[in-house]
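Protocol step 4 of 6.
Sequence for HAD family hydrolase (Streptomyces mutabilis) entered exactly as in the expression construct, tag removed. Do not edit the line below.
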Amino acid sequence: MPVLVASDLDRTLVYSAAALGLTMPDPRAPRLLCVEVYESRPLSYMTETAAGLLTDLGDTAVFVPTTTRTREQYQRINLPGPPAKYAICANGGHLLVDGVSDPGWHARVTARLADECASLPEIRDHLMNTADPLWVRKHRVAEDLFAYLVVERELLPEDWVKELAVWAENRGWTVSLQGRKLYAVPKPLTKSAAVREVARRTGADLTLAAGDSLLDADLLLAADRGWRPGHGELADSDWTAPAISALPERGVLAGERILREFLHAASPAR
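Step 5 output, structure tokens:
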């Protein structure tokens, strides 16, 4: 039976220059591979060692990139290894099969959102009316499913984030702060639901997962085994669960460690 490996991407497997966390002396820094280019500029990286591990993992398990990125943002990433047959974008709103969104899955997701939580326009209007232009750089709506702000993190008031989280919770939404992006995401929009669908389609009897943010918690809890790095929202809150391993590594080396753990756990079933 196949092993399914569902992993978050940003700050879990791939890292921007600002998130690399290269604290070692320069001569000891790992060699990096650029895996994303945006507007003709390199944007995201993994170590060359991690790239080799991911290639091996693609030959061993069903690897499913599982991201909050939109489809367009995901398609900018050029991961090493075999092309992923399945990918999950927009936090579970789109299930890609050979690069194409499954319309049946998307219809099921949107119907559930309409039934179970406040509407996107209500959330977007609240963000527009309460966020201060002093620290907001961009307002964005992703795939007509959720909203996010690009903020100046050092100017962002902590109390405003807490108040927004309470307001959103009462309307069936979750707030997640990841780097310079503050997300407002409907609670029924989950990575775990899409991963369960992939597991059903592939017949996988073992699911492994990794992620660093609050939006990855449901994914980790749905897996048979999960890992989180030593950075990110989950690490900052000391979040854990019985089948979750909290790794000490931070930055790009955490991505390398996560891939080693995936391979170790998946290899007995190869």
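Step 6, annotate. The first helix runs from residue 48 to 60.
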